[in-house]
UniProtKB/TrEMBL annotation:
Upper classification of the organism: Bacteria, Pseudomonadati, Deferribacterota, Deferribacteres, Deferribacterales
Entry-linked InterPro entries: Aminotrans_IV, Aminotransferase-like, B_amino_transII, BCAT-like_C, BCAT-like_N, BCAT_family
Function recorded in the entry: Acts on leucine, isoleucine and valine.
Keywords noted in UniProt: Amino-acid biosynthesis, Aminotransferase, Branched-chain amino acid biosynthesis, Pyridoxal phosphate, Transferase
Native species: Geovibrio thiophilus
Name of the molecule in the record: branched-chain-amino-acid transaminase
Length: 361
């Protein structure tokens, strides 16, 4: 499908290269344009890049009432050659369609998703933030637009992509490990539900638990499965821990855990990282014992926004605290972070197909 460009006048677009003086927040800034495609009568149509602006949406749209919405999160990086490269967006495009199936939305051609993202970045390339640790965060999303109050799938949809020049998700980056609340009160997802999809409803349902975690001094919840037996994941990242022999352990992907592209990438990089990376069901009791007796030396989270976020301390509902190692970032987490961000930023050779140069169209 041809992508039509209806751009802002040159004089209203960013003219200079973006060199923010202060550390950028995550997800707050926007660029000048967005990519939009509409779906009606069984087909996707009118792919276009237009100025970033409000949507006009019917008050009865299914997205507003029943959260018929899905999204993705990816990043693009500037390399030493001065070119911008998106990272593994083919994986995001594929997962978008998996999420679409879960909430009865139509699939959208993966090549069209990729082309829309690449061309949008090209149009707004002046917004790429030249700042240590910053990147261009890519947010594709799709929502139901039919004006209909029956609880049924919409017949019309909009797919769009917006960009956000962003700093790290956790403002202190990896230098200050985060605290996680281990909660047996809240659950993120259940078997037979939508936990393995990136659908807005999962995140709405996690807000209350997230606010509760903040009130206890933690930045996210480490969720357990519905029986409070196994570790699942966090609100915005998968979980991992490191055994004293250096093995990295990620909870097995069940139907209530998002298959994080970051975790999958770390698994694929096992050889290059020179360590074993395994997935298994992890009992929370064994995990706690492992930290207490020193068998587990590091822990943290993997995610596009979070990258590699080490955990320094776990806190419990009763106020108890459990420190991991000496509470600081460990050498395994640090080496994974460095290798992974090295690939993303072009300092380390990337496996074939992981990076896609943004052409000057
Ligand atoms: N788990 C959840 C619930 C998330 O929201 C995210 C973020 O996308 C992740 C894990 C990490 O996934 P990915 O590495 O694909 O960004
Ligand atoms: C991401 O890591 O890209 C996410 O989507 C997580 C969060 C910002 C919701």
């Amino acid at each position: 499908m041809k992508i039509e460009l209806k751009l802002k006048p040159q004089s209203e677009r960013r003219q200079d290269v973006f060199k923010p003086e202060k550390p950028l927040p995550f997800g707050q800034l926007r660029t000048d344009h967005m990519f939009v495609v509409d779906y009606a009568d069984g087909v996707w149509k009118e792919a276009r890049i237009v100025p970033y602006a409000n949507f006009s949406i019917a008050p009865g749209a299914t997205a507003l009432h029943y959260s018929q919405e899905i999204f993705e999160g990816a990043k693009a990086f500037m390399h030493p050659d001065g070119e911008i490269y998106s990272f593994r967006i083919d994986k995001n495009a594929k997962r978008m369609n998996i999420s679409a199936e879960t909430v009865c939305m139509p699939k959208i051609d993966e090549d069209l998703q990729i082309e829309g993202i690449q061309r949008l970045i090209d149009v707004d390339r002046k917004w790429f933030p030249i700042q240590e640790g910053a990147s261009l965060y890519i947010r594709p999303f799709m929502f139901g637009t039919e004006d209909m109050l029956g609880v049924k799938p919409s017949k019309t949809f909009t797919y769009a992509v917006i960009l956000s020049p962003s700093g790290p998700y956790y403002p202190k980056g990896i230098t200050e490990p985060v605290k996680l609340l281990i909660s047996d009160r809240f659950h993120r997802a259940a078997p037979g539900g939508t936990g393995s999809s990136k659908t807005g409803g999962n995140y709405a349902a996690s807000l209350r638990a997230g606010e509760y975690a903040y009130s206890k001094g933690a930045s996210q919840v480490l969720y357990l499965d519905c029986t409070n037996t196994y570790i699942e994941e966090c609100g915005a990242m998968n979980h991992y821990h490191v055994m004293k022999d250096g093995t990295v352990v990620i909870p097995e992907f069940t139907e209530s855990i998002l298959r994080a592209i970051t975790s999958e990438s770390v698994i694929e990089l096992e050889k290059e990282l020179g360590r074993k990376v395994i997935q298994q069901r992890i009992k929370i009791d064994d995990f706690i014992k492992g930290i207490e007796n020193g068998d587990i030396t590091e822990a943290g989270g993997f995610g596009t926004a979070a990258v590699v976020s080490p955990v320094g301390t776990y806190i419990f509902e009763d106020g108890r605290e459990l420190k991991v190692g000496d509470g600081r970032i460990g050498s395994v987490s640090k080496s994974i972070y460095e290798y992974y961000t090295g690939i993303q930023t072009g300092r380390v050779k990337a496996p074939a197909g992981w990076l896609r140069k943004v052409e000057r169209y």
